[in-house]
Specification:
The protein is an alpha/beta fold. The protein is built from eleven helices and 13 strands. The chain has helices at about 10-20, 40-50, 65-75, 90-95, 95-115, 150-170, 190-200, 220-235, 270-280, 305-310, 320-335, and strands at about 1-5, 25-30, 55-60, 80, 120-125, 175-180, 180-185, 205-210, 215, 220, 255-260, 265-270, 285-290.
Length: about 325
């Protein structure tokens, strides 16, 4: 297939592109290479992809309406995997407009491109953050999502609503995946594992929020990629059991699906740090701090719906995934 993949120089985007190319797909990659974090890391990821004959790259911003329309018209992809977004909960507290431009305007341009160019299926990244102030664990797709606690979360919920609208109005099959705390080699420098590793190796203390009383469903990047590809291959269909008199948020009478993708193994933050200390062979100095605004104390994913749909549940152990990250980090940075 020819697949248009946005965020190709990103963490998940690079890994997904590598898998698609390895199985013989043609990938049209899009990324704006912005400076939200070190552009050199994005360029290094991209350098792994550009030697492939079936990969083409376009340095574009998904929020650029005319450029995206022209790209869709020229490439006519069969399917689209939309991973580009302004990420990060805390950054949204100080730069909310970046989230509107990338996550709302950009997503609108993706939907329009799919609508007008015969795209058979749109797969897009949502986030566990859509569960907001909900404390009923594990999170499942049938729960209410009306209480987001960050602008990032609000834009991700908006993406799901926008996708449903296009599925309903234009019959565009769409599938959203709610990612739960993704980590692994080539990860984002603004994420906890990267920040902790850098600080520990530099002999600096790590900031541990909510005094360490945090739980996350840490999900290894290879498991995320497996889910993305399986979902992309299975085109969304209407749910024949959907009842509009008692609507279920997880289903629809339109070709619309949304799934959690998490590790099914919520891990206390202190155990995650312990796995990192073990992999590094260094005990971290810890600076215990209060909870950050916009954050939640715990996440846990119910992935039964994803398993029923594509026969897959993430299962990489945190100790294994953290070690793979540390091995990559030491090799990449020469530490």
């Amino acid at each position: 297939m020819k697949i248009l993949l946005t965020g190709a120089a990103g963490f998940i985007g690079m890994h997904t592109t590598e898998r698609l190319l390895a199985r013989g797909d043609a990938v049209v990659g899009v990324d704006n290479l912005n400076d939200y974090y070190d552009v050199r890391l994005k360029e290094a990821r991209l350098a792994r992809l550009t030697p492939h004959a079936n990969f083409s790259f376009h340095k574009l911003d998904v929020a650029d309406r005319d450029a995206m329309a022209a790209l869709f018209a020229a490439e006519r992809p069969e399917r689209v995997i939309h991973l580009a977004a302004q990420a990060g909960v805390r950054y949204s507290l100080t730069n909310p407009h970046a989230y509107v431009e990338s996550n709302l305007t950009g997503f609108m341009n993706i939907l329009e491109g799919c609508r007008h160019n015969g795209v058979a299926h749109l797969t897009y990244a949502s986030s566990s953050s859509v569960y907001g102030g909900n404390t009923a664990l594990p999170f499942d797709e049938h729960q209410n999502l009306d209480h987001p606690i960050s602008m990032y979360a609000a834009t991700k919920k908006a993406n799901e609503l926008m996708a449903h609208t296009y599925s309903h109005l234009f019959g565009l099959p769409t599938t959203g995946l709610r990612f739960f705390t993704v980590y692994g080699p080539w990860g984002r420098p603004d994420m906890a594992l990267f920040l902790f590793t850098r600080a520990i190796l530099a002999g600096e203390p790590i900031d541990v929020f909510n005094n360490g009383e945090m739980v996350r469903d840490f999900t290894y990047v290879d498991d995320i990629v497996e889910g993305v590809i399986r979902v992309t291959d299975k085109i969304a269909t209407p749910d024949p059991a959907f009842d509009p008199a008692s609507p279920d948020p997880a289903t629809s009478n339109a070709p619309y699906r949304v799934f959690n993708i998490g590790n099914n193994s919520p891990t206390p933050l202190m155990d995650y740090i312990g796995a990192l200390e073990s992999a590094l062979g260094i005990t971290a100095q810890k600076n215990f701090l209060p909870m950050q605004l916009g954050d939640v104390p715990a996440t846990a994913a119910n992935t039964d719906a994803l398993d029923a749909w594509v026969g897959f549940k993430p299962d990489t152990r945190v100790v294994d995934g953290v070690k793979r990250f540390v091995d990559w980090y030491r090799n990449y940075y020469g530490k």
